[in-house]
Amino acid sequence: MIYLNGKFLPIEQATVSVLDRGFIFGDGVYELIPVYSRKPFRLNEHLSRLQHSLDGIRLSNPHTEKEWTDLIIHMIKSNQYDDQYLYLHITRGVAQRDHTFPHGVTPTVFIMSNPLLPPSEELLIAGVTAITAQDNRWGRCDIKTISLLPNILLRQLSADEDATETILLRDGFLTEGAASNVFIVKNNQLLTPPKDHRILPGTTYDVILELAVTHNIPHAIKDISESELRAAQEILLTSSTKEVLPVTQLNKQPVGNGVPGPIFQQLNQHYQTYKQMIMRG
To answer: Is CATH 3.30.470.10 correct for 2-115?
Structure first.
């Protein structure tokens, strides 16, 4: 079951006008919310990020926080998976093709659910591979826009190399992954770039930093140079679907000792404990 513009219905019955500005211009935003044991994970934070994205494209929020919460809970109950992720998609609506904002148009609101599969034990033990590429996306990466073609092309670069992620560099500094945030370990300290217009403000990014504070893991938020990335003791990827993943090979060279490192092991253990706490309510 999906939700589209006020109705819950089977996805096969859902249709959107070809004049929808999401289809014509990519004029919209999205949000992705993980659900564990039918409980949405950090729902308030995800809805706050959605509001930030809507503000960024000057689109009024079509629902109150309570309305979003009710829709999300209904969607969770309407689908069979205990662990799932909800995809929220809001566009400016249907109007004749014109670059300027239309007046009096109702936004299109779409929600769907998919099963949420955690990273396999094999990936957590062996780690994943990544490549680097120049970050050629637009200048407002903090907006979770549906216009994802640059991310798609960058992610495909790593797929072409049978790698898990493309780690991005802009002006000689780390930004993020094509579909993840990035942390490194240098001199046994966890480092990550600051949240600004260059990266998407990940909710898992926030959890990792909170866990670092709680468990006294040395950490800092700072600009990270390309040379620091390449020489890192550890590299970690984080996202709502990846959770926490260790990168053990970058550009076909081993990261550190070529195996998941101790900071990853600590953070993954703490993350799983935190997740279990959320699942228990």
So the answer is: yes
